[in-house]
Amino acid sequence: MTDSGRSLPRRPVHFGPDALEAHGGTLPGPAETTEIAHQTAAVLVGTGRAAHDPEVTARLVALVDELGLSTVADLWAGRPARSLPGALWRLYAVREWVRRQPVEASRQYAAGVRYTDVAHAVAGVAEPPGPEEVKSLADEILTGVFEGDLAVALERAAAFASVVAAGRADLAHDRDDTDPAWAGALTTSAAAMQRTGEDLVACARLWRADELD
User: Does residue 11 sit within a domain?
Assistant: First the structure.
């Protein structure tokens, strides 16, 4: 049960246009879509934090596995980065990237460790930071959202993003001369990952001030 009295659905909930049309004949407007995004984020976090049930937590951590990344994106990706749905979207998107590309994720992370000692310590990746270690961290961070201090989980995710950003920048520098197009794309993605980390740190501050919604 959630703290609002609702039970967690046992099957994926589909939010596509066909399903919405079938349940009322009209699609929600922008204001309703915004409200849905924030309400679902709040219910999800409330469910996990009220349940105290490892099985529920495991299902919430694996939400993208059940619903699909596109469904989660439809719900939350359009919301501001410094909001609860925006933060959840970034956490799930990072986990999905790590889950799909653990070797590349660990390579980028390992490349950034020497530049980010403090962030590496905050992230808490086991040594050496190989594919299984970064996958475990991604799951640990989301588990912390539902079972631990959400601000700490956000800070660990931010630290992970900072290390990966540094690693991408380092790898891009190594390829500047031999493959400038690839190096440029990786530099751009490093900047995006760094912004993700900054936004997650801001979300942690907002959560502690009871202002993250």
Answer: no
Print the domain residue range for 190.
17-208
Q: What is the pLDDT of residues 136-148, one digit of tens each?
A: 999 999 999 999 9
Long-range contacts of 183-190 (CB under 8 A, 24+ apart): 190/164, 190/165, 190/166
Total structural domains within the chain? 1
Asked if residue 9 is part of any domain, the answer here is: no
| 12 DSSP 8-state letter | P
Residue 45 within any structural domain of the chain: yes
Report CA Rg, the chain: 18
DSSP 110-157: HHHHTT-HHHHHHHTPPSS--HHHHHHHHHHHHHHHHHS-HHHHHHHH
Q: Which residues of the chain have pLDDT under 50?
A: 1-23, 25
- Distance of alpha carbon 103 from alpha carbon 51, whole angstroms: 34
Q: What is the DSSP code string of 39-89?
A: HHHHHHHHHHHHH--HHHHHHHHTHHHHH-HHHHHHHHTTS-TTSHHHHHH
Predicted TM-score (pTM) of this structure = 0.85
The verdict on residue 94 lying in a domain is yes
List phi, psi (to 5°) of 82: -100, 60
SS3 state of residue 1: coil
